[in-house]
Structure to design on (137 residues):
């Protein structure tokens, strides 16, 4: 029994899988269709998205020693992503994320440029541990 053949995307002639050119019309990659390319792109985009969620993003460890001046330049969503990672690492329930974000924002926008994010988050955590929630300035 012969090898399974596939119709050429241009002329419909039967072509062996993996053939570089159609022997009938000469089109390059005769068995790769637009649908195949779109499928590969969709799978690629989903894969990149999943990988960036697993290994990418703004983690607290990447920013712990960054000065507040630089933290101010990040978008709110980047700051929230860093804070979310901090809460997970610090074993603090996500239900307090709003309070911690307010504390972090207040501190980042009111304290000296040269302070590190870890110093500020330490203050917010100390307030949380002593009062059950961070206080705001």
């Amino acid at each position: 029994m012969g090898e399974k053949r596939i119709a050429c995307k241009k002329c419909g002639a039967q072509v062996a899988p993996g053939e570089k050119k159609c022997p009938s019309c000469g089109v390059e990659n005769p068995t790769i269709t637009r649908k195949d390319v779109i499928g590969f792109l969709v799978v690629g985009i989903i894969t990149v998205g999943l990988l960036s969620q697993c290994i990418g993003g703004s983690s607290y460890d990447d920013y712990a020693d960054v000065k507040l001046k630089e933290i101010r330049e990040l978008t709110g969503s980047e700051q929230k992503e860093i804070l979310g990672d901090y809460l997970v690492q610090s074993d603090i329930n996500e239900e307090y994320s709003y309070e911690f974000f307010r504390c972090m924002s207040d501190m980042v926008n009111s304290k000296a440029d040269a302070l590190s994010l870890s110093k500020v988050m330490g203050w917010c955590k100390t307030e949380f541990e002593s009062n059950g929630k961070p206080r705001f300035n």
